[in-house]
Amino acid sequence: MYLGIDLGTSAVKVVLVDERQSILAQESASLEVQRPHPLWSEQDPDSWWEATATAIGRIAQTRSTELTGLRGIGLAGQMHGATLLDAADRVLRPAILWNDGRSAEQCVELERRVPDSRKLTGNLAMPGFTAPKLLWLARHEPEVFASVACVLLPKDYLRLRLSGDRATDLSDAAGTLWLDVGRRSWSDEMISATGLSCTAMPELFEGSQPTGVLSDGLADEWGIPHDVPIAAGAGDQAGGAAGVGVVRPGSALLSLGTSGVYFVSNERYAPNPDGAVHTFCHCVPQTWHQMSVILSAASCLSWVCELTGAADEAAMLAEIEAEPGGAGTEIFLPYLTGERTPHNDPHARGVFFGLDASTTRARLGRAVLEGVAFALADGQRVLLEAGARIDSVAVIGGGARSAYWGQMLASVLGRTLDYPRDAEVGPAFGAARLARLAVTREDPLQVCGSPPLERSVDPEPGQQALYAEGYLRYRELYSDLRQAFVRSGSRI
Questions:
Q1: Distance CA 352, CA 340 (A)
Q2: What is the pTM (predicted TM-score) of this model?
Q3: For 224-236, how does the pLDDT look when each residue is reduced to its tens digit (9 = 90+)?
Q4: I need a surface site. Which of 69, 155, 181, 297 has the fewest CB within 10 A?
C-alpha cells in the first residue's frame, strides 16, 4: 500500500493505492486563498497541514486495515510558493504563492544581479517563481527576511510536519530559480543574489528517492507502521505526469486545474527562456520537461459561474451546450491573475470583448472555455517553436470532467486528446507511484506507465477553421491591450 498526497491550491487530495496500482480510497479537504492586496496571493501553511491531517484521518477511519500494510508515502504539490521558516522551523508569515504577481520589479533586479541567470536556470525570472519573492521580502519586510533560516516549497512544509526533514525534489526545486537545472544542483550564485546562503535551502533528492520516515507519533495516530519512508515526490505538474505515464520523451499532458499547464517530457535539457517556456527537471532521474503555463484555467469557469449566478459549473456547461447558433462574437482573455506563457505579463487581466445586446450567460461561458483553449494553443505554439516533440497528449485535472470542453480543446489544438481513468487525482496518484519507487527501486518507466483510458477525443474538422479564426482574434486583442494593461498595472 502507498499513500499519495497532493497539496493543491484549492484542496489537499490524498489517495491510497495498492500493489496493483488500484486506488482504494481518496479523500480531500478544501483550502482558501487570501488576496489582501492587488497582485497578492497567499495561504497559511498551517492550513495545509490541517487539511492534510483531515484527509489522512478520514482514510484512517475507513481503511484502517489497509493502512497497517502501508509501505511508503509520496508528496506532490503546488510549485513556487515561498514558505518561510525561522531557525526553530516556525512559520514567519503566510506563504507567497505561485500565482502572486507582486515581485515583477524584483525579477528585473535578479536578472541584473546575475546576467547569466537564464543560462544557469533555463528560465526567465517571473513573479510567480520563488527567488524574486525573497528579494521583495528583503525590501518590503526586512524584519521577516532577517529571520529567514529556511525556505521550503509548499509540499515540503508537509514533509517537515510528517518527518521533521528539510528536503525537496528536483522537479519542484527547478521552479525556484535557485537551481542549476542542467546540472540538477543548487546554484550558489543564484542563491547568493537573493541575499541567502545555501544553508537556507532544503536537501535535494530525485523524486523517487526516500528523504526520511514518518514520525512515530503520526504513525501511531493513523495506524501506520513505524519507519514508513517518505519519497521526495514532485511538483504538482511533474507528479501529474508520473501519474498518467508522461515520463517518456515526446509524451505530453494538459492539466486543467486552477492553472492550465501544457507539459512535455524530454530526455535532455532543452531550455527556451525567451519564449517564456519553463524548462525543469522531471521527477524521475535524468529526465527533464518543458512547460507552458497559464495562471487561470478551470478556475475561470468557476469565476464566470459565480459572476453570472449559475448554479454550478455543470449547469453552466449544460447551458453552453444548449445555446443555439454556436460561437458568438464574444472573446475572453483568461488572465485573471496575470499571464505567464508566452508573454510573461503580470499586468495582464481578464477581459470580455465583443458583447452586444444578444449576449447571454451561456455565450459568456462559451467565450471563457474558448479563451482558455486559445491560451493553451499559445503555449503549444511556443513549445513547438522551442523544439518540443509532442507524440501524445493526456488530459488531467478538474477541467477534464467536461466532454464538451474536451472536444473544443482537441479542435483548437488540432490534436487527439487522451483522458486517463481517475484523471482528477493525477498528481496524488503520481506521488503514490513515487512512494513505491522509493521503496522498491523499480524502473520508473515500468511503474509510471499509462493508466487505462476513459476516452480519446479527436479534433472535429468542421470546427477547426472556426476556431483558427477565433484564435487570431484572441491574439490580436491581447496585442492591442498590452500597453493598456501596463498603464493600468502601474496605478495599482
A1: 19
A2: 0.85
A3: 999 999 999 999 9
A4: 69
